[in-house]
Structure formats: C-alpha cells, structure tokens
C-alpha cells in the first residue's frame, strides 16, 4: 500500500462529516432496499438480469453492430469509439462545428471515466452538470463518492456553504431550500445550452434505443431543450431486445435508490422535432475502452453484467468508513476496484484491492449476480503473480503450510509472550508492536496445542465416527474449543478421530492471492482427511469450513490440479460445521438439553464465512436456543467484525473501526454472551470486549453448549 | 385496477382524482387553475398540450375563461409556466406510473418544466404492471417514450427525499372514466 493511499485512508477516517453522513446512509439503506423488494422475488429478478446481461457480455460485438444499424436507420448518428481520446475528440469536433458554447449534462459515469468535463472546459466550452449531486460535486471541485448519490459524503451545511458562494448570498442549510436554489440556478442553463449530453442506462440493440432511468427530471430536459443531444454509452450497456429491458427496470430502482420505480424512465429512439419545426440532432457514442478485452477474459467477463446500481457500495462495511473518495477511482467500492483494474490498469487497482475485507455482503445483494469478492481475489492473484507477494507475507504463508516448523515456531512464541500475558490475553505490547494490541487484547498461544490434548481424551467406540479438522486457531490458541467440540460429540456417542497430518486449510493463502500455496494446502488436507473412513468431517471454524466445503475444488481447478477435484468434492460433501451437526443431532434426539438450567441471554454474531460462504446461520441459532439460551439479535448481526484474517494486520485502522461498531451492537443487546462459530471472529471480538472491559463474554458456540447438553 | 393505481401513485407523492366524464375533468381542471391563481392574468401561466378530451369549442371557451391558460406550447412560454397539462396514453397499476408517447416536444415541456403537472389518464388505459405496459408501447413506433411515477425527486443531499428538483413538484393525475371514441 502506498503512503499516499494510507494518508487518504487516515484523512477519511478523521473526517467527521464522512462518518456522520455515510454512517447514517449505510444504516438506512438495507431496510429501505428490503422494503422495495418486499412484494417481488429478488432471486427471480436477479436471475432474469443475469440472463440478459450474460448474453450481452458474450455477444458485445454482434449487439454493437445491430445497434448501429437500428439507430442509424432511425436517423441517429452513431460513433463507435475505441478509446477515451476518440470520444473526447468526437464531441469537441462536433461542438466546434456547430458553434456550441455551452453544454448541459445529465449524469454520466462514462463521461467521468474519460474525464470529459475538464477536456471540454480546457477547449473553451462551458460544461454544466445538472444532476443535483453532480452539480454540488462540480461546484465543490471534488469528485463523486458514490455512483448513484455522488455527494452523499457531504452534509447539508457543506452544501449550503458551496451554494452560498455560487449565488453570492447566504443560504440556509435547509434541504428543501437548497434544492430550490439548484432548480433556479440550473434552469437558465438548460435554455442557454446548445448541446445536451446524457449517458444511457441501457442501449437496446434491436431498436437502437437509449433508455434513461432517473428521478430528478434533468435528463428529460437535457435531452429536450438543446438542439443537439449526445448520448455517451459504454458497450456493456447493450441488451439484445426491447423486452430485455424489463428485468433491469425492475432491479435498478429497487437496488439503487430503494424505490419500486424511479420518477422517470425515458426511451429515445432517433431524433425528435424541436419546437421550431427543425429536427434535433442525435449522436450516440458507443465507447469500448477495454470492455471488449474484458469480455474476452473468462474470469472478468461477468463484471460487464454490472447495471451500476451501486448497492455493493451501499452495503460495504469498508465503504461506509472511507467513502468512494478513497475506495474508488471513478467507479467505487468492490465493483469499482474491478472496473478500475480494466478501464485504467491493474496497477491502479493495487491499493484499492487492499481495502476489501472479503466479507461477501456485496455478492449477496448484487442484482447482476457478480461475484465481486472472487474477482477482487483474482486481481490479488494476478498482482501476486506479476509482482510477487511481499517477502514477509510469503514467508509467513510458507511457514503455516509447514506444520512441523510452524509448531516449533509457535513453541518459541509461547515462551516469548509470557511476560505480556494476563488471564489468557495480551493487553499491551512493547514499542512498535503496540498498535496491534491498542484496541483489542490479543489472545495468547496455548501452552499445549489441541493435537496433544486430544490424545488424552478417551474416545467411545461408536457406530458413527467423525474426523475433526481443528484449523490453526483452535489447535494453537483455543484448544478449549476443540475439547468442547469433542465432548459434545462424545455425548452423542460419536467417536472422534484427529488426523494428525492436517495443516492450515489454505484460506490465508487464498485470501492473499497465493492460489498455488492454497492449492498445496488443499491437496495436503484432502489426503489427510480422507485417509480415515469417517462419516463426517467436522470443523468448528467458519473459515476452514469454507475451505473444505467450497474453496478446495475451486482452487484446484484454478491451479489446474483437476485430478484431485473428485476427492475435494467427496470431502466437501461430508464436511459439516459443528453447529450443523449438533442441530441435526438435537433434532434426531441423539442429544438432549439438560434439565433445570438457568436461562442466560446471548446474541449471535454471524461470521462472514459461515453466513455467506457456507450458508450456516440458522443451525447455530437453533442449537443454542434448543439448549435454553434466550437469543437477543443484535443490529447488523451479519456485518463483518473487521478481522478478515490478515486484514486486521494489513488495515488495522479500518479493522478497528469495524470492530468498534460490532462491539457497540453487542453491548446494546444487554446479552451475557456473544456466541460465534469462528475463532478468527473470536480473536477480534473477544479481544475487543476484553480491552474495553466489557461484561459481555465472547464464546465459541461449542463452549456454550458443552455443559448444557447430554 | 384504479384502486391499485391510486394507492401506488399516492404512495410516491402523486395526487389522484377520478371523474366520470370529460366534462367533469374539464370542470375539475378549471377549478384547479382557479385555485392556483391562473385566472384573469393574461399570458401563459398554464400550458395545455394536445388532448383528446378537449373540443375546439371547449378550448376557446377555456381560453376566454382563464386568460392565463395557453394552448400554444412554445419554448418561451414553457419557461415561465407554472402548470403544465397533458394527456397520457397508459397507466400502470402496481407502481402508479403513467406513460406516454412524448415524441412531440410540446408534450415534454409541459410535463418537465412547470412546477405542477396535471396528467389526464383514461381509467380504462390502466394496465397491471410494467410487463404489460412494455407490450403496449413500442420504441419502433414512438421515438420518445416517457414513464412518469410521482413528482420529480432527489435524495442527493444527505439522502433526504426532496421533491421538485428539476421537474414538477406536484404531480396530479386526473383519471377519466368516459371512454374515448373507439378506444374503450
């Protein structure tokens, strides 16, 4: 991460206005979106959007050719531009040929992508944004921070200051008053402009139509009053047929602005008459700017399905902390990182991609079905393979794959930490390490790892045998959790085996873009875990579960180790998270709650891996309430705690902000415990609560179950 | 269908009226203009684009009753007009949307520039949903199709919903039951 970028993050984090404005926005968005989708089936709409846009991404050239023919036959002039320069020159030449002095614009991300405004301004043409948010940004001489609401990071007081300066009169910060000022100021500009420039939400190939989806009404005026209309459209906006627009018209208003329908939808096909009887001139520019290259890349092609609703920003836990001013170039957030890697270059996305914590919230709500986290990992992988990983990171990742060496290192670390340890936590670290323990206490490395403890637990010889995959954290930091898991399973008469050869699941490697090392970890563990003839493989770590159930097969495919895939699938099929198996055992009455327990309140934290990667979130709640806990759901129960594996080390400031929100939400429930099924989250949340001196105890679900069941 | 349309349109801030005949619609609009002060001051404070509910005779009568109302929709007149009146082709029940072929620029200036837009809609032209509307309208036949749902709105400052940013602040739909000749 560059120093400039680090400074930008710090500045954003210290900007109280960003925190207030985006904090409020990000909390209001999810329920509002939910309401907009209330009486329709989101999954069905998403399926239809994907169907249309996937076809487009696979037929870009063919659709572009059809569009050109249709639009030209309707009387429009179509220009196909390969590069941003070609677009800029075309518009400037046209403006000069027609004597255009003033141009009004409705919102167009594509024009921002090519920095059109400054180019035209430098060539002596006055350019005025008319979208309220864009106009604020233009007057403030800053850049948009959100793709749908460009000025969402600014407070009304800031806007009032900017407007006051523009109209040279003190204007109050009442929002309706500010909106009136904009209406009045911009109104004259429409009438004076010689050219109107719009973007296009959809371009229909079969009819040569441009579709605009808006709320303010400025796009309609921009495309009506000036006698020349230029529509600038990226190639990815093409759809094949008129009927293909329906899924996007259903999804876009709901996902972008939480409306069932926007105020306006406009479809323009060819020139229309002006008020004086002449015909309007309509120019449509279809811009490529690397979209064709992207379409030829089997991994990244799906990013062309994006409909620019920006819901991925609106739910991103990192975006809300730093805004699109930091997390973005022209396009923002997760999808912005991906588009930047193409529309600019891979290197420009190199800082941006470090911000992604891989929580998967964006993927969950994307109406175009784009696997944003996976594409960010692919960027990481390509960066790692072209530039290599930093030496220290690479060494660390190699070490955890080498179990024997890792062991001896941890032993040394256990001894070295002794002076700092108190009650199982490290609360202060000396000098340069102090940052790590500033906001949360660090867990200590256990005296005896789980793999040694396990040997002392006598196993019943049962009908059912399971292999326990502990993962690194339970093995070396939280062996107690491992003991609890074994104890509960034993109570159901299940025999547990611990395959000694198991090693790190590879999630840290995968998350760092070191797919080769992740594939090695997959191969190694598949062999170790399938060696015993067991009915289930159980893990009590959500990240390991993700590896075993999902990623092994994927990463083996990526690394062309396809012969192992059938075994990876076999392993995935028999892998259960502890809570999954326990709730099944309770249901089958093989485990029963103990009678006469006092009722304690707990709240449940969904780890990103459990909720969004392996889809386990009902089972732990069912198991915990079955044994008598009273569940008090917290606000944003499935929002990332900020741990994100090595994220907490690479982005400590952001990680801590996420943690602090989580801690507050936990405290607000008034629960005695916060339960979770991920040792990584437990390090973060447990450490945070300890450091804050909270009365709430963070516990792994297995620890909370072991004495309440028989 | 009308009830669904009305509920959905009102939920997004539109005002919805229903009358039986064209004459009733005319009376309602006349009354509306009076309330909004478009009465005896000559000049275009209100603009009415082509509408099937008006006969030539009624137009002349209206012009003399309401000197502020003008049927000659020009660019300059639209700049100052407070109210715009136009007739829609379709309504969509589940979103409270109205839609029209707005290829004629007059249709667009009266519905985008004034602070109040009165949209006349035949009640029997309300369809169930977007899917049905898209089947009724065709970009190959209409060069400029407009779908309107409620007043002009923005949430660009602090995500606070504010109406009337560039287009109409009040969006009034007058549904008329009397079927149009041959269109019922």
Computed structural class of chain B: alpha/beta
Number of beta strands of chain A: 21
Sequence of strands across the biggest β-sheet of chain A: 1-10-7-4-2-3
Sheet with the most strands, sense and barrel status of chain B: 6 strands, parallel
Q: What gap, in angstroms, lies between the N and C termini of chain A?
A: 52 Å
Shape of chain B: globular
CATH C-level class of chain B: Alpha Beta
Order of helices and strands of chain B: HEHEHEHEEEHEEHEEEE
What count of helical segments of chain A does DSSP give?
35
Number of domains of chain A: 3
Which stretches of chain B of 5+ consecutive residues score pLDDT under 50? none
Helix and strand topology:
The complex is a heterodimer of chains A (710) and B (184).
Chain A: H1 3-13, H2 16-36, H3 42-58, H4 60-73, E1 77-81, H5 84-97, E2 102-105, H6 109-113, H7 116-122, E3 126-129, H8 132-140, H9 156-167, H10 175-192, E4 195-198, E5 202-204, E6 209-214, H11 218-222, E7 228-234, E8 238-239, H12 245-257, E9 264-268, E10 281-287, H13 291-295, H14 311-314, H15 319-326, H16 333-343, H17 349-352, H18 361-365, H19 372-387, H20 391-401, H21 403-417, E11 421-422, E12 425-426, E13 442-443, H22 450-454, E14 465-469, H23 471-476, H24 479-491, E15 495-497, H25 507-511, H26 515-530, E16 536-539, H27 542-558, H28 565-574, E17 575-577, H29 578-587, E18 601-604, H30 608-613, H31 618-626, E19 630-631, H32 647-650, H33 652-668, E20 673-676, H34 679-691, E21 697-700, H35 701-705
Parallel strand pairs in A: 1-10, 2-3, 2-4, 4-7, 5-8, 7-10, 14-15, 14-16, 16-17, 18-19, 18-20, 20-21
Antiparallel strand pairs in A: 5-6, 6-9, 11-12, 12-13
Helix pairs in contact in A: 1-15, 2-12, 2-15, 3-12, 9-10, 16-19, 26-27, 27-28, 29-31, 33-34
Chain B: H1 2-11, E1 15-19, H2 22-35, E2 46-48, H3 56-65, E3 69-70, H4 75-80, E4 83-87, E5 90-92, E6 97-101, H5 105-112, E7 116-122, E8 126-127, H6 130-136, E9 144-148, E10 153-154, E11 162-163, E12 170-176
Parallel strand pairs in B: 1-12, 2-3, 2-4, 4-7, 5-8, 7-12
Antiparallel strand pairs in B: 5-6, 6-9, 10-11
């Amino acid at each position: 991460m560059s120093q400039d970028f680090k400074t930008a993050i710090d500045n954003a984090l210290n900007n109280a206005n960003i925190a207030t404005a985006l904090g409020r926005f990000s909390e209001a968005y999810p329920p509002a979106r939910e309401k907009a989708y209330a009486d329709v089936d989101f999954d069905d709409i998403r399926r239809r959007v994907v169907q249309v846009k996937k076809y487009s991404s696979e037929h870009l050239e063919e659709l572009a050719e059809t569009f050109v023919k249709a639009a030209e036959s309707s009387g429009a002039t179509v220009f196909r531009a390969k590069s941003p320069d070609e677009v800029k020159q075309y518009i400037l030449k046209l403006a000069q040929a027609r004597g255009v002095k003033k141009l009004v614009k409705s919102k167009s991300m594509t024009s921002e992508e090519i920095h059109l405004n400054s180019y035209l301004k430098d060539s002596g043409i006055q350019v005025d944004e008319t979208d309220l948010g864009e106009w604020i940004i233009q007057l403030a001489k800053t850049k948009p921070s959100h793709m749908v609401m460009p000025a969402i990071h600014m407070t009304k007081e800031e806007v009032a200051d900017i407007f006051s300066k523009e109209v040279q009169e003190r204007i109050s910060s009442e929002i309706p008053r500010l909106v009136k000022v904009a209406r009045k100021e911009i109104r004259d500009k429409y009438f004076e402009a010689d050219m109107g420039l719009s973007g296009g939400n959809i371009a229909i190939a079969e009819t040569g139509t441009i579709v605009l989806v808006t709320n303010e009404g400025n796009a309609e005026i921009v495309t009506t009053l000036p006698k020349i209309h230029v529509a600038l459209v990226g190639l990815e906006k093409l759809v094949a047929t008129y009927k293909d627009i329906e899924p996007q018209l259903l999804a876009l208003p709901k996902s972008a602005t939480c409306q069932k329908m926007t105020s306006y939808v406009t479809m323009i096909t060819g020139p229309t008459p002006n008020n004086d009887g002449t015909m309007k001139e309509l120019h449509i520019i279809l811009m490529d700017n690397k979209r064709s290259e992207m379409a030829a890349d089997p991994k990244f092609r799906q990013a062309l399905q994006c409909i620019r609703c920006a819901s991925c920003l609106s739910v991103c836990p990192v975006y809300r902390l730093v805004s699109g001013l930091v997390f973005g170039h022209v396009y923002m957030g997760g999808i912005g990182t991906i588009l930047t890697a193409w529309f600019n270059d891979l290197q420009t996305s190199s800082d941006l991609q470090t911000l992604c914590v891989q929580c998967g919230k964006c993927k969950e709500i994307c109406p175009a079905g784009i696997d944003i986290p996976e594409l960010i990992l692919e960027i990481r992988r390509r960066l790692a393979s072209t530039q290599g990983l930093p030496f220290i990171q690479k060494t660390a990742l190699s070490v955890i794959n080498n179990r024997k060496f890792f062991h001896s290192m941890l032993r040394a670390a256990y001894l070295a930490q002794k002076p700092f340890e108190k009650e199982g936590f490290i609360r202060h670290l000396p000098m340069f390490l102090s940052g790590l323990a500033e906001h949360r206490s660090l867990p200590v490395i256990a005296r005896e790892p789980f793999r040694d403890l396990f040997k002392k637990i006598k196993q019943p010889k049962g009908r059912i045998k399971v292999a326990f995959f502990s993962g690194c954290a339970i093995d070396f930091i939280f062996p107690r959790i491992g003991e609890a898991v074994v104890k509960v399973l034993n109570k159901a008469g299940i025999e547990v085996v611990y395959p000694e050869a198991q090693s790190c699941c590879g999630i840290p490697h995968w998350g760092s873009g070191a797919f080769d090392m992740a594939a090695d970890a997959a191969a190694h563990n598949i062999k170790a875990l399938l060696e015993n003839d067991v009915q289930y493989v159980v893990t009590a770590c959500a990240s390991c579960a993700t590896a075993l159930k999902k990623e092994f097969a994927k990463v083996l495919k990526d690394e062309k180790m396809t012969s192992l895939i059938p075994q990876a699938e076999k392993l995935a099929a028999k892998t259960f998270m502890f809570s999954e198996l326990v709730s099944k055992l309770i249901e089958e009455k093989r485990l029963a709650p103990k009678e006469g327990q006092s009722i304690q309140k707990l709240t449940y934290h969904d780890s990103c891996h459990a909720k969004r990667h392996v889809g386990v979130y009902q089972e732990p709640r069912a198991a915990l309430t079955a044994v008598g806990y009273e569940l008090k759901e917290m606000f944003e129960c499935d929002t990332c705690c900020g741990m994100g594996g090595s994220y907490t080390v690479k982005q400590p400031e952001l990680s801590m902000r996420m943690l602090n929100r989580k801690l507050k939400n936990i405290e607000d429930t008034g629960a005695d415990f916060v339960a979770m099924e991920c040792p990584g989250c437990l390090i973060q949340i447990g450490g945070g609560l300890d450091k804050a001196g909270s009365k709430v105890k963070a516990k792994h679900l297995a620890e909370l179950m072991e004495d309440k069941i028989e | 269908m009308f009830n669904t349309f009305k509920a959905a349109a009102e939920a997004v801030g539109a005002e919805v009226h229903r009358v039986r005949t064209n004459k009733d619609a005319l009376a309602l609009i006349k009354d509306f203009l009076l309330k909004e002060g478009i009465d005896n001051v000559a000049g275009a404070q209100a603009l009415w684009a082509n509408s099937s509910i008006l006969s030539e005779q009624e137009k002349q009568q209206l012009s003399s009753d309401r000197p502020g109302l003008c049927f000659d929709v020009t660019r300059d007149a639209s700049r100052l007009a407070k109210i715009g009146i136009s007739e829609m082709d379709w309504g969509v029940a589940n979103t409270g949307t109205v839609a029209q072929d707005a290829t004629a620029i007059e249709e667009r200036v009266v519905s985008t520039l004034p602070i109040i837009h009165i949209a006349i809609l035949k009640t029997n032209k309300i369809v169930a949903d977007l899917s049905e509307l898209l089947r009724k309208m065709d970009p190959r036949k209409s060069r400029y199709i407009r779908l309107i749902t409620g007043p002009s709105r923005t949430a660009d400052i602090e995500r606070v919903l504010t109406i009337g940013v560039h287009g109409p602040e009040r969006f009034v739909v007058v549904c008329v039951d009397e079927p149009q000749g041959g269109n019922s």
